[in-house]
Structures are given as C-alpha cells and as structure tokens.
Specification:
The chain has 487 residues and is an alpha+beta fold. The chain has helices spanning 2-29, 34-42, 78-95, 97-100, 103-128, 132-169, 173-186, 191-218, 222-235, 240-271, 274-287, 292-322, 326-339, 344-368, 376-388, 390-393, 397-413, and strands spanning 52-53, 60-61, 417-422, 428-431, 435-439, 442-447, 450-457, 464-470, 476-480. Among the domains are: 50-189, no CATH class; 357-413, no CATH class; 417-480, Carboxypeptidase-like, regulatory domain (Immunoglobulin-like). Helix 7 (173-186) packs antiparallel against helix 8 (191-218). The longest helix is centred in the N-terminal third of the chain and has 38 residues, at 132-169. The radius of gyration is 63 Å and the shape is rod-shaped. It starts with a helix and ends in a 7-residue tail after the last strand.
Length: 487
Amino acid sequence: MLDKKLEEAASKRRANIILLVLIAVITLLGGGLFFVLTNIARSPSVEEPTPSISAETGAVVPQPQVPERDVSAPTLTDVEMRNEFVKLLSKYEQDFEPSIKQSGFSVWNSNLQETLTGMKSEAVFDLGAGKLAPAFANIEDLLVMASQSVVEFENAFQNELSEARLSYEADQYAKANLAIAKALSFKPEDKSALTLSQKITDLPALLNLIDQAEVAKVENNLAEELRLSEAIVDLDPARESYRTRSIEIEGLLRETRFETAVAQGLQASLDSNVQVLTNAYSQAKEIFPTRPETKSLETKLRNLKRKIAVAQFKDTANKAIKGDHWQEAQSAFSKAATLEPLDTEVVNGLEISGKILKFQSTIQTFLNAPERLSNLSVAKDAKKIVEDADLYASLSPSLKEKQQSLQKQVVAQNQLIDVTVLSDNLTLVSVRGVGKVGKILKYGIKLKPGTYFFEGRRKGFKTKTVTVKIKSDDQTVQVKVISDEPI
C-alpha cells in the first residue's frame, strides 16, 4: 500500500539521519563499533507518524492523505497503470501543489520546491514517453515527498507563528517582530498572522503606555492612570489586568468625587449657598443616590431653600411695612407662615398686619358715613376704635391718618350748629325726630350736623316738609317753613 510506503520512506529518512550522526561520531572515536552501528542504523524504525499541532488553535493540523495502493500488486495492465498514474497526479495537483507553488514555500525551501517541480515534470515526461513503470514509481515518490514537505512547511509556519505570539505575550518586541516577519514570509495572506502582526506593530506604543501607566500609579495620579489603562485595553483587549485596574480606578475616582461633593455640600449648607449645595447634591445623587450622605444633603438643601424662601418673604413683608403697604405685608407673612409656622417674626408680623388692616377697615366704615357719628351709640363705638388703634397707628401712617380723621369727625359730627327757623306765625313747625318748634316768626335752635326734616302744618293747608342738611363746617343755618298751599 502507498501509505505503508510513505511510512517506510519516513522511517528510512530518519534512519539515514541517525546513521550520518553516528558515522561522524565513529570518525572521531574509531571504527570499532562501525559494524554494530551500521546494523542499528539499517534497522527499520517503527515510530508512528506524528501529526502536526497548530500553534494558533492547539488543534491537530491534518496531514494530506495519499490514496492507498498495494505497490506489491503482481500485475497492472498499461491502461490500469495509466489510469492510476492520472489519479495520483490529480491527487498531487489538488492536495499538495497549491502549497508547494506558493512564494512562501520557496522562501522556506526553494531547492525543495524546484526538486518537487522537477519530479513532477520527470514523471509526466516518462509517462508521455511510454515509460510507465518509471513514471509510476516517480509519481509515488513525488506524493511521498510532497506530503512530508507540506507538513514540514506547515509546521515551520506554525512554529514561527507560535514563537511570535509567545514573544508578543512576553512583551519581547524584537523577537516577536522577527518571528512574525518570518511567518508572513511563508504565508503572507494568513489572517491570524496578519492580526498578530498588527498587534506586534502596536507593541512599542503599548509598552510605552504601560510604562506611563506605571508612573501614574506610582504618582497616585488615578485619572491619568485610568486614561492610560483604557488606552492599553483599546490596543490589546486581552490585557485583562488593565481592564480590571480600570474598573478599580473608576470605583476609587467615584468615591473621591462623592466625598468631594458631600464636603462641598456641607460647607455650602453652612454658608447658605443654595447654588453650590444644589450642584453638590446633584453630583452626589448621580454617583450614589441611596447613600445616607446623599439623603442628608437632600434634607439640608430642602431646609436651606425653605430658610431662604422664608427670609425672602420676610424681607418682602418688611419692605411693604416700610412703605405702609399692610395688605402686601400680610400676604408675604402668610406665605412665610406656610413654610415656618412657628417663626416668631412671622407670627408677630401676621398679628400686627392683621390688626392694622382690621382697624383701617373699621375706621373707613365710620368715615364712609360720618353723619352716623352724631348718634351717641355710634360715636361711642368710634371713640373706642380710635382709642384701641392708637398703639398700631404709631406703626402705620395711613392708619394714623384715618384714626385722626375719625377722631375729628366724632367731634365735628357732635358739635351744635345754630339753626334759625323762619315761619309765618300761623304754621306749626316741628323737626322730625327732634321735637316741636311751634308757631313762630323766627326761632333759633341748635342741631348737630346731619340731615333734618322740618315740617309745617296748618289747618286747611297741605303739610310742608323742608329737608335740611347741616354740615359740620356750617357756622349757621337758616330754614324757612310756611304751609301756604291750600288743600
């Protein structure tokens, strides 16, 4: 079988190598063991062929299979031999020749490439010349040598690729660059080699970043170390230690930012700086929203805002008080009371503003109908209001003015004005609600300011009514009442 012949050829090749080594030793040590060593060298090896292992994946690289054929078959017809030759030639051209004809194969072993090409040409030439037996023997030898050569070529490539990868992982740029260059000289289009080549190209920059990251770590410059660690992972995602360090640094920086935000917030609370406290709380909430420190800042911010709002309302109220705008002051104090109901200034402000507004309203009611003040009961109530408002009038010029005005009206509306009544001595004159004047020609009476109705009655004549409005600033008033219209 052809596979058996491949195995025997491989064993013979290894035996020849051993023989050459031993002959060299015998040359140095003497020929005493020549006969024994020669017999040992000629002994056929029984080693099993070792499959190639891929350095990239660790998988077994399959060796091209040569079709089985019993080379010791007693007879083959010419036609059968030609057909078998064509099959073996096709096997060579499909499984081995594409690799052997590559430029990388020539780089690896140009002499071997020429030898294999020549063996093919010789076999084909012998077939064309009708030398079937030599042609058949040559094509079989070609397949054996090609199979071994392709495996050795593949192993050479994988060895260089493995060397490049190991050197890269050991950060040995020069060694890795040399190995990957050699691997690419064998297989310029190999994707795994091209990918590794790019990594090796980036290795000097990567090593520079690693050095800088180490310096940043020594200097405790966490922000710079994080930047460099992330850049390292970007260049080589396999650098897991730097990915882990990046996560660790982010945690440390997050803690630092949180502590800074809390410290700034606490100081801002003491300084009543709502803007800084707001920013600090926002930062802390973004980093660790559920931490007790964050909740504390939230409470302090809420209290500070309430405190500032109350202060603003009180300021508005005090300005309104200075301007004697008590309705505005009461409104501001009411708003402050919804936030700080127990604030002494707010409570007192609400009470005072309410009292002043009430006094103003009550006094204004009297002033709107001053003639009512001539009534003793009404005048008494007015005097009481004037007296009660005296304390608060010192705080409000407008209340003081109304108080004084009412006080004057009470006096004015209760003074007696001289009234002269004129008649014909026939008409019975009376003042409705006051009393009778009688039949007079001229009569003087005193009346308080107000509206009075003078009536004149006479038998056989219509009753005469004269309305008189006596003002508080009148000096004297004259009224003529004569009933002279017959019925």
